[in-house]
């Protein structure tokens, strides 16, 4: 489900499970990690991440997950390792985000250097409907860019931002019509690949040092919180409701 193509020093990694809106299982996370490792070993000078079909990434694939036996630390540990690999990739990275960008999908975008989004993309935290905790660095992004009140408003309601609104709020780089998005991201990646990439990486390291303490602390705290919530009745109800395609009936327990 993870495709890697390399052309003229530019890598393109594609999430290719459109039937599930590119939701990611643990196996898919490991495939993706391997794709980034292969791209790094090839010496590419820029990389594009995108999703096939109607969405960038709708988050975790929980279709067959039993919350009573769910290995939350294992899954979120794989998410953090992948995010760290993306953030540390030794070349400029670009993401083309369209459709749903939720949960783990949001984390992939957070870890990427430059994020271009479709005007009508849907970005945010749907966890209010699941009984789970926003993860993959979402708390750090929303708090840093939106402030405490707006961040908690989105978390409590589960409302999503359009791509245009997310860019206007400072979450991502720029928004554009969906039919222009991928060509634009590819052109910008090719331009970066032909530029002074050693200088670009020096800037990337500086920006990374300013960003990383808050981001990785938040990721670790999110992982601990998610594991604690796994034993609650609302967590089990949220998973069951999602899998049965019905509204959840939460009890606050």
Automatic annotation (TrEMBL):
It holds the Pfam family ECH_1. Gene3D superfamilies: 2-enoyl-CoA Hydratase, Chain A, domain 1. It comes from the Bacteria. PANTHER family: EG:BACN32G11.4 PROTEIN, ENOYL-COA HYDRATASE. This is Enoyl-CoA hydratase/isomerase family protein. It comes from Microbacterium salsuginis.
């Amino acid at each position: 489900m993870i495709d890697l193509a390399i052309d003229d020093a530019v890598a393109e990694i594609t999430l290719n499970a459109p039937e599930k809106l590119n939701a990611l299982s643990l196996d898919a996370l490991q495939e993706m990690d391997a794709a980034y490792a292969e791209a790094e070993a090839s010496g590419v000078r820029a990389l594009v991440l995108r999703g096939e079909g109607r969405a960038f990434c709708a988050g975790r694939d929980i279709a067959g997950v039993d919350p009573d036996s769910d290995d939350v630390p294992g899954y979120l540990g794989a998410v953090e390792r992948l995010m760290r690999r993306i953030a540390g990739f030794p070349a400029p990275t670009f993401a083309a985000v369209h459709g749903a960008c939720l949960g783990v999908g949001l984390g992939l975008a957070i870890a990427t250097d430059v994020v271009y989004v479709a005007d009508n993309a849907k970005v945010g935290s749907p966890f209010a409907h699941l009984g789970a905790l926003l993860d993959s660095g979402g708390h750090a992004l929303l708090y840093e860019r939106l402030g405490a009140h707006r961040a908690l408003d989105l978390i409590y309601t589960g409302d999503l931002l359009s791509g245009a609104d997310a860019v206007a709020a400072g979450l991502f780089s720029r928004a554009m019509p969906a039919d222009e998005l991928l060509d634009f991201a590819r052109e910008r990646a090719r331009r970066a690949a032909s530029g002074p990439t050693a200088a670009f990486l020096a800037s990337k390291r500086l920006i990374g040092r300013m960003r990383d303490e808050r981001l990785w602390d938040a990721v670790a705290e999110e992982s601990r919180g998610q594991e604690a919530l796994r034993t609650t009745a609302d967590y089990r109800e949220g998973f069951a409701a999602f899998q049965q395609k019905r509204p959840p009936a939460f009890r606050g327990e």
